[in-house]
Amino acid sequence: MSDKILLVDDDPILLDTLAFNLRHAGYRVVTALDGAAALEQAAAEKPDLVILDLMLPELDGLTVCRSLRQTSEVPILILTARTGELDKIVGLESGADDYLTKPFSLGELQARIRALLRRAGPRAAGEEIRSGDLTLHLVSRRAFIGDKELLLTPREFSLLAELMRHQGAVLTRDLLLTRIWGYDFYGDTRTVDVHIRWLREKIEVDPSNPARIVTVRGIGYRFEG
Questions:
Q1: pTM for the whole structure
Q2: How many structural domains comprise the chain?
């Protein structure tokens, strides 16, 4: 069965044009014209990818993105007419996986869709990783500190597993992007920083002074245990 895409834009002409072309490319497409409808469609349709315009009525795209990310690791591609660096950073920190500025070609859009869908699946392994009281069960993809289960998203789990597999080694942001997001990921290294921040909030006693995941300035991160 083909992948399902939720397409969200308040411009009905653009929405219909993109939906037509994506269906022609073989995707199943559901649409929404505003943020509230987008959340309803996401809950009902369980899409494999969300293409989300930033400027939406009812709820803006960043609010929708943050809401989706609270409960789902579905890939999110933001569309926007804004070109500023700050807008891109805010979009990525809201949980988006990639960012495409209008106007864009259908070819570039489809390339980014393919890249995000290829890398959306979980990375499983038949082993368990332990470090102190932190345990990852890689088959069931469950994480625990002591007896307390951690609520990690699939991407957070994969990132933590990669760091723990190489405890004591410095992993660069580019290396983490390659291993967790894939060679053809179109985002930037700030995506790694955002996910590290989220992880620290869940596994560190003091996230502002982390002891498990340590920043190596200008290079990347090291898992200390």
A1: 0.58
A2: 2
N- to C-terminal Cα separation, the chain: 42
Among 88, 79, 77, which Cα is nearest to 117's? 77
How far apart, in whole angstroms, are the C-alpha atoms of residue 125 and residue 120? Answer: 16
CATH code for position 79: 3.40.50.2300
Region class of 99: left (phi > 0), else alpha (psi between -120 and 50), else beta = beta
- Cis amide prior to 154 (ω within 30 degrees): no
| Token output for 217 | 């300035």
Note whether residue 72 is domain-resident: yes
Separation in Å, CA 95 to CA 25, 51, 69, 155: 27, 13, 6, 11
Give pLDDT tens digits for 48-74. 999 999 889 888 988 999 888 877 878
Give the structural domain span for 151: 128-223
Other beta carbons within 10 Å of 132: 10
